[in-house]
Every structure is written in C-alpha cells, then in structure tokens.
UniProtKB/TrEMBL annotation, chains A, B:
Keyword Cell division: no
Subunit comment: Homodimer.
Annotated GO MF terms: 3-isopropylmalate dehydrogenase activity; magnesium ion binding; NAD binding
Pathway linked to the protein: Amino-acid biosynthesis; L-leucine biosynthesis; L-leucine from 3-methyl-2-oxobutanoate: step 3/4
Residue positions binding Mg(2+): D222, D246, D250
Name of the protein this chain belongs to: 3-isopropylmalate dehydrogenase
Catalytic activity from the UniProt record: (2R,3S)-3-isopropylmalate + NAD(+) = 4-methyl-2-oxopentanoate + CO2 + NADH
List of residues binding NAD(+): 75-88, 280-292
Function in brief: Catalyzes the oxidation of 3-carboxy-2-hydroxy-4-methylpentanoate (3-isopropylmalate) to 3-carboxy-4-methyl-2-oxopentanoate. The product decarboxylates to 4-methyl-2 oxopentanoate.
GO cellular component labels: cytosol
Length: 355, 355
C-alpha cells in the first residue's frame, strides 16, 4: 500500500488537484494499484485555519507519506501578513524539512501546442529539456541573512552557500537522469565571479568522472539565459543551484508557451517526492473552473514514475494526456481557434476516461 | 577639451575599438569637437604585459579620463591563470574603483535586423527596453566570500548585500531615465525569499515617491525571466541588482537576435562613464577582420550622450549606423541573403563616411 498526501493549497490549487485525483482513481482501477489518500492544508489556506502555512500536523503527514501531490500556494490575500507566515514560507519549509533537494523541471513542447510559443517554430519544435535544480541549499536557505543597521542606514544581506556534498549529490542526480535521456549535462554557474559556483564547477567536474558516458559542459548563467532564447535545443539536462535554477527553469518553461502544461518533481535521497505543477496559484481565475489541470495530472505521472516506481502507470497517464490533446480538447489558457474549449473538470474527466 | 581613454582589451576588442575611433575622428571633424585620446592595456593583454589585468597605470589613466571606451576582455589563453589575475577581475576592479554603479543596457530591435530574432516578429518588433543594472554592489562584491573547510569538506560562500543608499541611487537613475522614455519602471527582486531584495523593494517603492509621473511595478526575477520571453514589449525600464541584471540583460539582449548590435554604459555619480559593447571578446573570430563594430560604435554614441552631454553627436552617430544598415551593409554575424557582407573595417569606414 502506498500513501499519497494531497496538499491542494490556494487559488486554483484545489480545482486542479481534484482532477489529478480523478485521474489517480482511474489509474488505480486500471492498474489495480493499492493507494491510500490523505489530505492536509498548506499555504494561505493553512494560515487561515491554523495561523501557519505549514502546520505541524501537515508536516507530520508529509513525513509519513510515500509521495505528496501539491497544488499551488499564495495570493494577494496573504501578501501583507508577516513574512514568516506567508504561503511561500510553508513551501520552502516543506522542501527543507523533507530534504527534497532535487527539483526536476522538464520543459517540453507538446507538438499539439507548438503555436503557443513566442519563439519561432523551428527554434522550439521538439524541445525537451530537463532542468535539475538544487532545492534545499544555496541562497534560499543560507545563513547569515536579514536586515541590519550600519552607519545609520539599513543593509540587507543573504548568503549563498553550498558544501561539496550538497553539490555532488545533485550532480549525481543530473548524471543519472541524463543517462536515461541523451547523455548530456550542462552545469550552469557564475564561476568567473562567485567562489561558491567556482567550487560548484570543480565538484561537478569531479563527480562526472563516475559517468564516462555523459558529456559534461559548463556555462555561465548569463550565457545560459541567452542560449535558452537563441537555441534551446542544444540542451539535454541542465544542472544548477537553487537561485539560478529558479530563474532558468521558469525561462525554459516559458519557451514552450504553455506553462499550464509543465509538471515538476522534488525528490529526497530515497526518491520520496513532492510533485507540483510549475505554474502558480493564479488567484485571478480561481474558482471559475477554467484552470488547466494537465500540469498537475502530469505531476501525478512523475509521482508514479519516481516515487512509486511505476513507469508503466506514468506512461499511461502521459499517453492519456496526449490523446485528449489530439482530440482537440483545450482549457482556456491553451485554446486556439479550431479546438474545443473545455472546463477544468471536463479536461480531468477526459483524461480519466482516456485512461 | 575632453579626455577619452581607449581600452581595447582582448580578442576582437582591438579591431572593433579601432573602428569606433575612426567614427570618433569623423565626429570630431563634423562637429568640431575638442578631444584628446589616450590608450592603455586591460584584461588579458595587460596581464601579458604587466602581470595584472588592471595595471596601476591603466587605472590612473581611467581616473583622469572623462570617459572610457572599452572593447572586450578574456579568452581561453587566460582561463587557467590564478583567479585574481584573470581578465574579468580587471573589469570588475575597474567598475568598482571608478564607482561605475549604473549599468545601462538597452535591448533594441533594429527593424533592418528583425529576422535575426529567434522570437516571432509580432512578439519583438519595435522592442525597446532599457535595463538599469546596479554594477558595484550585491553578490559581485559582497564580503565575506570564499571557500572554507567545514566538517571535513569544503564549503563555498558568497554574500549578497546592499545598503539603502546603494539601492536608492540606482532607483533614481532608473526613474530619471524612464522620465525620458515611457515613464514605466519595473523593479525586479526575489522579495518572497531574499531579505536583501525585500529591502530593495521597499527602498525602490519609497524612492518612487519623488517621481509621481513614473509608473512603478515590481516583479519576481523568475517571473521576469518568463515575461521577457512571453511579452517583452510590456517593459520600458527594468531596474535590478547586479546579479539579476547580469542574467536578465543578457536574456533581453538575445531577444533581439543580434547581440553584436547592443551597446552599454556604466556611469558614476557624475555621469563619467565606461562604454562597452554587450558582446564578449569572441576569441574564435579575433584577428579575422569579420567582427561587428556597431555595438562599439553605438557605445561611442552613448558616451557622447551621457558623459560628454552631446546628444546631437550621439544622434548623428546613431543615424549614420541606421543609414549603413538601410544601405544593406552587414558584417557576417548579421548577414542574411540579399544584403552585402562587409568586413569590420568596411563597416567602420561606412559609418564614418555616412557621418
Ligand atoms: C514560491 C517561490 C518561493 C518558489 C521558489 O522560488 O522556489 C517558486 O518560484 C518555485 O520556483 O517553486
Ligand atoms: C565578464 C563578467 C564578469 C561580466 C559580469 O558578470 O558583470 C559580464 O558578464 C558582464 O555582464 O559585463
């Protein structure tokens, strides 16, 4: 029996997660899976209930689960509360508490949605990049941090810090995954300026020695931001730190033009993971039943693949998504003339049906 | 009499700077300018001569000058020398020693070169963004920094740090410049995670009170990296810190598809400045006479505008560049069928001639 914890969160989170659960139920039936589901509040919803974006009871359930399916968090309602209680803090603490150091963010262009990209078709057709972002270290969590008084004015400061072992373990994840893809890893740093990434480059280079079949290259982050726009298909796997990964994975996602389609996984040492769509909580359209549930449904597919080791179920979910796209079903965000505009629920039901 | 210091640097630096000097000579004649020119080594070239990428004599000349025209630095030849002696360090020390805190990086799409972009024409046509990057603070220069031993392994660390006054002065530059453009400033931060940018957001918001005509917005850096790809024309002026500015300005530059066309200015409190093309030293094509000198020539135009307060000369240089583009002259990097491929020198001569 596998235990999956559902964390719907805020904004469109509950709606899209509900459709992923619908697909999960269909997968259970078809594959005879033995799954127990539990649910808990997180983010703004949890703050409203318990005064904390990550209540102890939610964290306990998360620790006990084999995998977590996460919706999205945040919204203007909680933008002005004290910083430590904001929805994002709940997510950051969850990543850190569970040791979810490996964030996998695919940027894949669906041929059915090629028009949605702001890039020329020849530049992005067939795009399939995997960004491997370190998620529990770097400047996100580095100490010291804060705002201090100095010479009569305030000074803000943060610390970017990585140990060799943190660098090595994320590099290994990237090499392993590249081995299942096109055997190319590009490590992104700013080694010409920052000592922390100078060490990063050295450690990644050293870790590569155990992977003779992988072709490792290095790129400065400013150049990577350019190359993603110029010729994104040159990349297979990109591995980088927490902050650069945040920026580059969003840039890469947007190359596809349909961020409503991109899932992500955040894994610990034992491949237990948290799975969430790359898009945010979109408070402006929450509750209208028009959000795109496909990124969350494909996050469920990643959950099957990585945490439940059911690549077969993952493939089936992925195929079901492709099928409904081929049938011309589209939520509003990916709608174009000549296709059929459907609601969140209709989309979820169609994928479950296809499965 | 105005004193201009020429720092050709490495790679294609000397070739492109030479053409900018040719244009400068033509401008002198046409406008009867009174200019004294001096030249000094910097970067790898200076290291080879003096064992230092920024020799004291070069720094002294730079301090004495009214403005500096800079080529480009770096190359594989110096990649393995000790870090403090690398070409980039010379540039960083120069920026810091001269207090060149305001880096202006326009990303402009030339209608003549619209095809060069990897983005769809409708997404980028007419693009005209100005990125204002803080250049002497933040994680580039923050202390403490280095690599230390901890629990039997190495740990790399850097410090991102900004004082209120540093934030305020760069914000003011952005507001002033926006006032001469479309009155919109977008400040980019990661205030949901980093305290240093939380303070940034607060200080920029406060500084905006003196500029009631400017419309100020805020964006997280990951979203900004996305929005630049999705809909870059939503931006007028973007203001941000050193590291985010490095990444976003290169991304924005690449949206135009012709980074060989983009100039930059780095100004101090008194608008004394260093002017350089956005592209690098391109060691692979150095010495072949095929590099594009236009970014350097337009850097000269910025020099005229900001440091010499000769907007008229700047406009004339800019017009001369447009004219040779209209005539169909192209260096190899921007060549397309139906245009005339010319050398670095032919391009420089044509602009000088048009002037
Ligand atoms: C919400 C925010 C803290 C988060 C991050 O920066 O990691 C988000 O942007 C992401 O990428 O998951
Ligand atoms: C060469 C390097 C140190 C420099 C920087 O990062 O500032 C360059 O990328 C730039 O943007 O001018």
């Amino acid at each position: 029996m596998s235990h999956i914890l559902i964390l719907p969160g805020d904004g469109i989170g509950p709606e899209i997660v509900q459709e992923a659960v619908r697909v999960l139920r269909a997968a259970e039936q078809r594959f005879g899976l033995d799954i127990s589901l539990d649910e808990a509040p997180v983010g703004g919803a949890a703050y409203d209930l318990h005064g904390d974006p990550l209540p102890q009871s939610t964290l306990d359930k998360a620790r006990a689960a084999d995998a977590i399916l996460f919706g999205s968090i945040g919204g203007p309602k909680w933008d002005t509360i004290e910083r430590d209680k904001r929805p994002e803090r709940g997510l950051l603490r969850l990543r850190s508490s569970l040791g979810l150091f490996a964030n996998l963010r695919p940027a894949i262009l669906f041929p059915q949605l090629a028009d949605a990209s702001s890039l020329k078709p020849e530049v992005v057709s067939g795009l399939d990049i995997l960004i491997v972002r370190e998620l529990t270290g770097g400047i996100y969590f580095g100490q010291p941090r804060g705002i201090r008084e100095e010479n009569g004015e305030r000074v803000g400061f943060n610390t970017d810090v990585y140990s060799e072992s943190e660098m090595r373990r994320i590099a290994k994840v990237a090499f392993e995954l590249a081995g299942q893809r096109n055997n190319k890893v590009c490590s992104v740093d700013k080694a010409n300026v920052l000592e922390v990434t100078e060490l990063w480059k050295e450690v990644v280079t050293d870790a590569a020695k155990d992977y003779p079949n992988i072709e490792l290259s290095h790129m400065y982050v400013d150049n990577a931001a350019m190359q993603l726009v110029r010729a994104p298909k040159q990349f297979d796997v990109i591995v980088t730190g927490n902050l650069f990964g945040d920026i580059l994975s969003d840039e890469a996602a947007m190359l596809t033009g349909s961020i409503g389609m991109l899932p992500s996984a955040s894994l610990d040492e034992n491949r237990k993971g948290l799975y969430e769509p790359c898009h945010g909580s979109a408070p402006d359209i929450a509750g209208q039943g028009i959000a795109n549930p496909l990124a969350t449904i494909m996050s469920l597919a990643m959950l099957m693949r990585y945490s439940l080791e059911r690549g077969d179920v993952a493939d089936a979910i992925q195929a079901a998504v492709e099928q409904v796209l081929d049938q011309g079903l589209r939520t509003a965000d990916i709608y174009t003339e000549g296709t059929r505009k459907v609601s969140t629920e209709e989309m979820g039901a169609a994928v479950a049906e296809a499965l």
